Structures are given as C-alpha cells and as structure tokens.
C-alpha cells in the first residue's frame, strides 16, 4: 500500500468509528489532488465529505468552529504552501482556544492535513516545508510520517488526539513509498520517535520524506565504516527529546537534517536542546544539514535540497572532528 | 400586566428579502424594566472599566461597549442557550448577558483567579460554555469563519422536524472589510447554514469613519451579499433588535440559509482605551447621539411616557444598579491572583503527562509580594 492509500485508509477508519467525523477541503469530495480522500464521499455521503471553496482561512476557521462544538474535523489544505492564509486561524484561534477559554472548551477535534516538501519540480509554492512555523506555537501538535504504516497510524492518533494537530504529508512519497500497511484500526503514539537503525558513531535525526535521503546518507557512511544511529522523530511538537538525548549520550555526535531553510528551522531547536542536555557527552559541534536560506528555487532545486551527499559530508565531518 | 405598543416602521431596511419583521410590537412593563436594568448595568460596568483602566487597575487592551447595549440585550432576548454567539474583542457585555456577572467580568479584567478564564485572558477573552458564548476574539474578523463552523454543527446535528439552532458571528464595520468574512459568508450561503452575520456598525473602524472605509453605497453593510439577504436594524432600539432578530433567527433556523444583519449603533468611547475617540469625530456628534438616540434613554422614556413607571422609580433603579456595579467591582478587586501553575494549564489537553507544558527548571518566578505589590 502506498502513502496516499494509507492516508485514505486512516481517514476511512476514523470516519467509520466516529459519526461526528467530517472531512473537507478543496476538491476533497472528488478525492483531492493527491487522491487521499478518494472513495470517501461514496462511502460516507456528501454531508460528511465535501468540497469547500478555495479559501484556506475560511476552511480552518470552519473546522475550528465545528471542533469547538465537539465534532471531529479533518480539514485538508491542498498544499502546505497554501496554509499561510490559514496561519492566523491556526495560530491565533486553534492553538489558543483551550488556553483562552480557561479550559472551558477546545478545538482538539481538529486535524489539518497538508502535503509538504519538494517533488523535483514544485517551485516556490508547491515545495515548502512549513513545520517550524507551527512548532513555534504552543497548543498545536505537529506530525509528519515517513511512510505508509506510520501515515495511517499517526493520522488516526492525530485525529483522535484531544488537541488540534497539523499533519504534514511528504507529497513526494504519496506514490513512491510502498509498505505492508496493517489492516484495521491502529494508532502510532504521538510524541514518540523511533530508532530506524542503531549505530554507535553518530546520531542522525530527521522526519518525513527527508528520512529516505538520510537512509542513503547512512548507507554511504556505512561504506566508509561509519555506523549511524538514524532517528525518525515522527512528531515535531511535542518532540521526543529523550530518544535523541539518549542516543547522543552514546554517540557523542549529532546531525539533524530537514528540507526547510536552515535559519529558524526546527533543527536549530533540536541542536539547542541537545547541547543543553548532552553538553559533556558531545565530541563535536552538532551539525545541521538543511535547505538554503532562499525561496524554494525551481531550477536550482538540486542545489537547494540537503541531499544524501551533503548529509554524508556532514556525517564525516562530525565524526572526524 | 401593563404594556404598551411601539411603532417600529422606520427601524428596519430589507435587502433581497420578500418578508420583513413586524412594523409594531408590544412590550410589557416587566420586559422593558428588564431591558433597562440589563442595559444600565452594562453601561455602568463599562464606565467602571473606564475608571479602573484610568486608575491602572485594569491593564492591557480594553474596548468598551457603551452606546451599543441595545444590541446585546435585544439579541439575547431572542436567543436560547443552545444558540451560539461569537464576537470580537468588544465582548464585556456579551459575557455579562450570556450567564455572567459584573463581578466575574471585572475579576477577569483585574487579572483575578475568579475571572472568566482565570485571569489569564483579560478584556478580549471571555467565554461561557454553558450559555453557548464562544467568546471575544482578539483578531479582527477571525471570529466569523469560526462562527460558520458553529453554524455547521447546528445543521449537522439538527433534530428532525425542529428548527435548527443558530450561530451568530458579530463583528464591527471595520472588520466587515476582512476577506475572511466573504470566505465564510460564501460557505454559509453555499451550504445554507443557520449563520447570522451580525455587523454592529458603530460608524468607525477604529478611527476611520464608515464613509472612508467601505465602497458599499451609503456605508450599508447589510447589502454586502448578492446571494445572501440582509436586514438593517436600528441598533439603538432594543425592541427593534428583538423583533428584527426574532425574524432573522426564524429565517435562519428554518433552513433558508444565512443572513447579513447590520445594527445601526454608536460607540461612545474611543475604539480602545488608547483612543480618546475625539480626533476623527466631534464632541457634538457624540453629545447629539447621547441626547437623541441613546438606547437606555429610549427604554426609560418608553416606560415613563407610557405611564408604566414614574420618573422617580427609574431614578431609584439607576441608583441601585450603580451601587451594585461598584460593589461588584470592589469585590472583584479583592480576589486572588491565579496561582503560578495556571500559566501552564490548558495549553494542551490534560490527558497525559507528556502533553502538559511545564515550567523550565531554571526560570525563577517573580515574587509578587516583593516586586509588584510593593
């Protein structure tokens, strides 16, 4: 099963088990541009699966209102790049509703799904990874799966989590990632990372589609005798500090990689926290391998992205410090 | 029970509608007295806020509702607890009218633990779950899409054979120019949601008068929609608000879709406490409104001129309410400040320890006894 089918399965499961669950967004009733909601309208009816006008701020606000009344709202923002018109609603309304109302209510039933990341030809507005804007906002959770099994389990956990969640789907993997996804209902716990491969020399941290790149980088490292411990964070807010700090205590070295621009990116938060927690265990300065501080450049995409060779270089540099 | 009949023929203007509210209404002494007391309490509460703000007992942002009392009062008369209401930052009166007390409102403004959101929100953030009041929102216009979500819930959970509950999203004439109002109005009309878009047109978007901020002819916001009908209501006449909103609610609750409502009103105070409110309008204009259109004077006159109450009796009521507000204010000020843990509560749900935000170990909390109170 590929990633878009896994997302589809996750939503189907959520809607089957929760009568208040609705899903909506631009062209969602027809399956959505990435086919994630295909067949849901036929199964659950047009009262529960429907198209909205092209208005992200309205979509987010609408979902918040419905969730505030106790409903489960699964909103789709067609591209992560289009989430910015909804930014105010998510940051000022969704994230603060529980706090603002002194705990009287919340919009925890809201999950906003959105595709993110580079695809090779997306250009400025179909390639961005806006996770760090949201990790900077207490009150919302930020989740990004690396493959179909996690996509289904994390999505179900996000939809059922009593907090609003921004769920980012690496769109490059929609068709490319194929795994044996379990049938039926299961959740992958939010806030927990996973060690994808253990190693003793250097800790390598990533999330979402970047893990494919990091796996290749770790293979390259292995070919020169460097053992990497590769960690998938899965949830960025709240993130699993323990799994990373335990690993760095062991390896003494850290590389964090993401596609979003380096300045103000989430890697900065991880590196900062880890130097606090593991200062005396560090054998080398922690390194960030990220996108460049430019808008996402169409023709320069290959130069912009933190690919496996850049990561391999960083791993070697950190190990040989 | 004594009552009087009032002419409402000049209090409504309709847009894209074949039907209209009645041209006259009857109100009993009790009803009128209730309106008077509510409105006068709101007025006194807002004046108390003004005083306390200037005495620096209320800090931060503070937007007052005096002048607009008839709107909240008239709407509330028509609404049930099951109807939802969401509004802007100008929300003290709605908090009061939707199941609150003067003391609770002021306690929130004083930053006390007994306030609506435990003193954490302040002026722009009041809520009452029990009474379907979804609060004041600090961002201009942002409450309106949320209100449409509330209306969707009312439609989704509609009971067979009964009218729907309605959701009212209130905003000012300044906010009426926000793009998100159009987005949400479009969705509400498309899906025929029981959403009421209630523009409280007090003539000024902060310091810019309505003629300068809208291209709508005559600054008339009830004509905003081509697909959505509208009604303009004299927002200084509580009976017009009552009858108008009865009509609007009935229309929306019965599946006809949303409606734009424009309440013609006036704000006596500046936009917020940092705005003296006199640079973009004349003192004469304010004084004229006070003498000719004041919503509380209207009710008072209605009671006296129809022989339902004596002038002396009204004076007594005013005196009593002034005392009550002042007492509530003093009590609220005596309240406790919220405990420090409250800072970390309600960021995330409390279902698991991992979700809870925690104090960073090395940050020392201020000692109020030593620093602020001294």
- What share of residues of chain B is helical? 25-40%
**Class per helix and strand makeup of chain B:** alpha/beta
User: How many individual β-strands of chain B?
Assistant: 11
Q: Largest interface, by Cβ-Cβ below 8 angstroms: which chains and how many residues each?
A: A-B, 44 and 46 residues
The total domain count of chain A is 2
The quaternary state of the protein chains shown equals heterodimer
- CATH architect. name of chain B: 3-Layer(aba) Sandwich
CATH class of the largest domain in chain A: Alpha Beta
Structure description:
The complex is a heterodimer of chains A (321) and B (374). Chain A has 321 residues and is an alpha/beta fold. Chain A folds into two domains: 174 residues, Rossmann fold (3-Layer(aba) Sandwich); 126 residues, Rossmann fold. Chain A contains 13 helices and twelve strands. In chain A, the strands form two sheets. Chain A has a seven-stranded mixed sheet, sandwiched between helices. In chain A, helix 1 packs parallel to helix 7, helix 3 packs parallel to helix 4 and helix 10 crosses helix 11. The radius of gyration of chain A is 19 Å and the shape is globular. Chain B has 374 residues and is of the alpha/beta class. Chain B has a single domain, classed as 3-Layer(aba) Sandwich (Rossmann fold), CATH 3.40.50. In chain B, helix 1 packs across helix 2. The longest helix of chain B is centred in the first third of the chain and has 26 residues. Classes of the chains: A alpha/beta (321), B alpha/beta (374). Chains A and B meet through helix 3, helix 4 and helix 5 of A and helix 5 and helix 6 of B. Chain B: GO terms for molecular function: pyruvate dehydrogenase (acetyl-transferring) activity. Chain B: The pyruvate dehydrogenase complex catalyzes the overall conversion of pyruvate to acetyl-CoA and CO(2). Chain B: It is an enzyme of class 1 (oxidoreductase). Chain B: Keywords: Oxidoreductase, Pyruvate, Thiamine pyrophosphate. Chain B: This is Pyruvate dehydrogenase E1 component subunit alpha.
